[in-house]
Amino acid sequence: MTASVAAINNNLGHIYRLIFHLSSLKYFKLRILNNQALNLKMPTAINEEFCYFKYLVICHPAFIDELISLLSYTPNLSHLYCYNIIETDNNMKLEELIKLTHLIHKTITTQSDDS
After folding, report:
1. Which 8-state DSSP code applies to residue 67?
2. Can you say whether the dihedral through the CA atoms of 19, 28, 61, 96 is positive or negative?
3. Spatial separation of the C-alpha atoms in residues 1 and 29, rounded to whole Å
4. CA distance 94 to 100
5. What pTM value is reported for the model?
6. For a designed S-S bond to 45, which of 6, 12, 28, 73 qualifies (C-beta 3.0 to 4.6 A apart)?
7. Residues 5-49 pLDDT 10s
8. Which residues sit opposite 42 in a β-bridge?
């Protein structure tokens, strides 16, 4: 499933939580057309909240800590593509944070947080 959104109410976490409940979905791509940084705050997943995506494509800005929380819902992920991940001074190295057992391909582009 691919979703391209032109306008959103600043709560991407709500969209991801809805999509994660689609148990037969194996591929999801979310693209925000205006490329604005939005709220992706999500609690870390517990066992009952796992989804079974194999492929996840994130085409919108997100902070590293938001990405890590999001990935806690996808333990079976094999392919991850993230564009515009925002690094801040207090972030650990991204490579150290993303530890998914089944991950065989990862593409991540980052940008600095200028705020």
Report:
1. H
2. positive
3. 6
4. 13
5. 0.82
6. 73
7. 766 666 788 888 888 888 899 999 988 877 666 677 777 777 767
8. none
**Number of domains present in the structure of the chain:** 1
pLDDT in tens, 49-96: 788 889 999 998 888 888 888 888 888 899 999 998 887 765 556 665
CA distance 46 to 86: 25
Residue numbers of the domain that contains 42: 2-112
Alpha helices in the chain (DSSP H): 12-20, 64-71, 94-97
The 3-state DSSP class for residue 113 equals coil
Instruction: Give me 31's structure tokens.
Output: 């693209």
Gap between the Cα atoms of 63 and 97, Å rounded: 13
